[in-house]
Specification:
CATH superfamily of the domain at 2-133 and 165-189 and 254-265: NAD(P)-binding Rossmann-like Domain
Oligomer: single chain
Number of strands: 11
Helix content: 40-55%
Order of helices and strands: EHEEHEHEHEHEEHEEHEHHHH
CATH architecture of the domain at 2-133 and 165-189 and 254-265: 3-Layer(aba) Sandwich
CATH class of the domain at 2-133 and 165-189 and 254-265: Alpha Beta
Radius of gyration: 19 Å
CATH topology of the domain at 2-133 and 165-189 and 254-265: Rossmann fold
Distance between the termini: 42 Å
Structural class: alpha/beta
Number of helices: 11
Length: about 280
Amino acid sequence: MILVTGATGNVGTEVVKQLAGAGHKVRALVRDKKDGVKLGTVELAIGDFENLDSLGAAMRGIDTMYQLAPFTPALVAHETNLLDAAKKAGVKRIVKHSVMGAEYESITLGKWHRQIEKKLEASGIAWTHIRPTGFMSNALQWVGSIKAQGAVYYPAGDGKLALVDARDIASCAVVALTQPGHEGKAYAVTGPEALTTQQQCDILGKAIGKSIKYVDVPDSAAKESMVGMGMPAQLVDILLEYTNLVRAGQADQVTDAIPRLTGKPGRTFEAWCRENAAAFK
């Protein structure tokens, strides 16, 4: 039995679906039963990252876990609770959802994930780290400005990023969860090409039949906008650390993890845009 935490997010949902589709026994950790409706007929465990009793109950009979906690200020505490509950329950293998570059601990998000990676590595549990880059689906955050103004406002300059499809991240995770030979390894998971934000706008514009202008905005304007939309200031600052890496050309790495693990090429941003064009029209 494999437990998937963060099971209703972009990647977690795909991990659950792909595991179940391949015939594996899956249990999905969700906060509320209604949250698990979209996961199909898999077994649900109702729990909360801050409720250790619920985590312990979710892990009864579990051999392997995909450890994924949402991006919140409590990420380290929540993942520590998951790891403590897993050790107590006798979980034998954990595949941790991390972030690309965590090993360098150069930005706050990387430091948070590396802190948990180190705890996992010292736990005695067999481990694998999946470290994805930015998601293609993050472009959906541009829907409003594209519809209203035909523009994307983003603070990344001419820096490139090898965006990755959440389905491909999940496919790599499923391999690590179900096949031997991945213990003690970390995989940086990227899409097949590094693109600037302007290139992303050009590709998306072609898919929807509309010219999209990219406006490189300063951090202060980006922060004001994101805070205005309700995002906590602490998380905004952390995201801006990441976009500063992109702007500086330090996030343009392209890896072969997807074809190496799955035997298939990673999906392109062009293909993602064609699939999701309706959302922008």
